[in-house]
Specification:
- The complex is a heterodimer of chains A (107) and B (122).
- Chain A is mainly β and 107 residues long.
- Chain A is 0% helix and 50% strand.
- Chain A is built from no helices and 11 strands.
- In chain A, the strands form 2 sheets. In chain A, strands 2, 4, 5, 6, 9, 10 and 11 form a 7-stranded mixed β-sheet that branches. Chain A has a 4-stranded antiparallel β-sheet with strand order 1-3-8-7, with no helix packed on it.
- In chain A, a hairpin with a 2-residue loop joins strand 7 and strand 8.
- Chain A is globular and about 35 Å long.
- With 122 residues, chain B is mainly β.
- Chain B has no helices and 11 strands.
- In chain B, strands 2, 4, 5, 6, 9, 10 and 11 form a 7-stranded mixed β-sheet that branches.
- The chains are: A mainly beta (107), B mainly beta (122).
- At the A-B interface, strand 4, strand 5, strand 9 and strand 10 of A face strand 5 and strand 10 of B.
Amino acid sequence: ETVMTQSPATLSVSPGERATLSCRASQSVSRNLAWYQQKPGQAPRLLIYGASSRATGFPARFSGSGSGTEFTLTISSLQSEDFAVYYCQQYNNWLISFGQGTRLEIK
Amino acid sequence: QVQLVESGGGVVQPGTSLRLSCAGSGFTFSSYTVHWVRQAPGKGLEWVALMSSDGSNKYYADSVRGRFTISRDNSKNTVYLQMNSLRAEDTAVYHCARDFDDSGYENYLGYWGQGTLVTVSS
């Protein structure tokens, strides 16, 4: 089983500032890494796949990077609608797994 | 448009069974791997199970293997999750979700249902 660890658990950032979220895999997942955004009362929404490809509907301020075991989600200039919980997910094998999430809150 | 609608949730006692359904529409259901993902109240996402498009591959999380069974009926555009020997820790919103593409091996989840709540309590 591949364990995904996200840090920090909570990140407090002011609007307009940059946010950097981390995700680490317990073994290499190559670039088979996705990120999801979840807002209260809503289902998760695919944000990034293939470690760095942005899903439809998300602006260019969202970017993903990394490979192997270390991944980063960067939001370059936070807007009010970006405050949410973000999850990473590996799909390197059939037994997919999620990180525990990072809550991005307004400072 | 792509839609996934779950049903079958409810309040059940520990040790009992429940079957969830997920009905898909707006796409060729038989071409896609479908997953169940759950979220306990106030907690994160936990992948539960997947079934490939033709039903030939199915996989489970350790926490549910041997108790839960995933199945699908492509003629009805529906995936099921049979949950037996339910425990309090199975209490969660259960979402079904579809792979983004129909390759079968790029298992990132492009479409999600809103979920159905399962509460296991005596």
